[in-house]
Amino acid sequence: MTSETTVTQGWDKLSSTLTRLARPEILPEGSPVNMPMTRGSTVLFPTLKDMQKQGQKRFDHEYIYGAMGTPVQHELEKAIAVIEGGTDCQVVSSGLAACTTPLLAFLNAGEHCLLPDSVYSPTRRFAENVLKRFSVEISYYPPSASAEELGSLMQPNTRVLFAESPGSHTFEVQDIPMLARIAHAHDARLMLDNTWGFGIFAPFAHGVDISIQALTKYPSGHSDVIAGAVTVANTEDWHLLRDTAIQLGQLAGPDDCWLTLRGLHTMGVRLSHQARSALQIAQWLKNRPEVARILHPAFPDCPGHEIWKRDFTGAGSLFGFVLKNTFSQKAMEAMIDSLRMFGIGASWGGYESLVLPTSKSITRNFPSVETEGPAMRLQIGLEAPEDLIADLEQGLSVLKAQN
Ligand SMILES: *Cc1c(COP(=O)(O)O)cnc(C)c1O
Fold first, then answer.
1. How many angstroms does the Cα of residue 375 sit away from the middle of ligand 1?
2. Hey, what's the signal peptide range on this chain (predicted)?
3. Is 46 exposed, middle or buried (0-12, 13-18, 19+ CB in 10 A)?
4. Structure pTM?
5. Domains contained in the chain, CATH given
6. Which is it for strands 158-164 and 112-116: parallel, antiparallel or unpaired?
7. Using one digit for the tens of pLDDT, what is the confidence trace for 131-146?
8. Which tens digits make up the pLDDT trace of 14-45?
């Protein structure tokens, strides 16, 4: 059985870094602990020459014009790059924009992008409805594909191999070092949606070229911000990404960036608690006769569990489970409606617990665990785990009564 330390150690270790990030210099006259807020579109310069000189520094996280980011956004970018282990980061308006911006930056008409079947559905819709219109070829691979299978799906024009680990709703943990070897052997970039693994999976140390974050989730942490980030690890990629982001008008408002920076300082301790509770609740569910399978990377039931043990230093607050197929979708929906401690709503990573049905809401080209029975996804917040378990226990009695 997975110990609590295995799911919390990465978060506990990260806290020392998180508390030091984005702290202003201490001046002789004294300084507040946190970054001051700067709002502004126009930035004024003493001379035209100064303005032109500053304009050339667009790759250096400088303050030039509000549409190219404010000082708070640039501090957030530096903080995210440190946590991800990359060199530079671009903050954008949402987690989805963090997926679409690099896809637009690193793909050209006539090229091919290979996506995992478990990719976040809005990313899939963007590929189908926008990238295809611009003559980018799109195809999918099973998230647990072997090296041989994947090699056979790569094409001479494949320039982006996309990954998301664990996969949306179905939680397949992907073999990122293997994917990196295949991408690089085919002269393609490996792009990873690392939202679940932020802080507990080091993308660049495992061969990723471009790492994506929905800052909406763990970093902001209070369900009141929408923002995203794209991190890279070399100058060529940074220039291409930054120019594309500017040309698309991609940025995040200073208030959202400030709230995300504030959230980052407590992310380690929040997620350590949430990861421990999530493990405890998943262990309780695993022993229930109504449950067929736990979709949590720390459980052997979860596809890619061994890879998670090898590559991650912790686990997150989000997991899924599949009910035995003797239960109807309708009975599961009655159970969800009966829960008092779990909010019904999109997103995750905040301080509060959430529930969503996942079966019947996802598109898959290949068979997946979701087809085995009604399934749902839990986001575990900061509530006491015993209270959440008591709520799930009454929910399961509703499930049985309604079946
Ligand atoms: C939520 C999420 C996104 C999108 O983030 P938004 O800020 O809601 O646009 C992207 N990828 C993953 C894996 C997510 O969970």
1. 20
2. none
3. exposed
4. 0.97
5. 37-262 (3.40.640.10), 267-402 (3.90.1150.10)
6. parallel
7. 999 999 999 999 999 9
8. 999 999 998 888 899 999 999 999 999 999 99
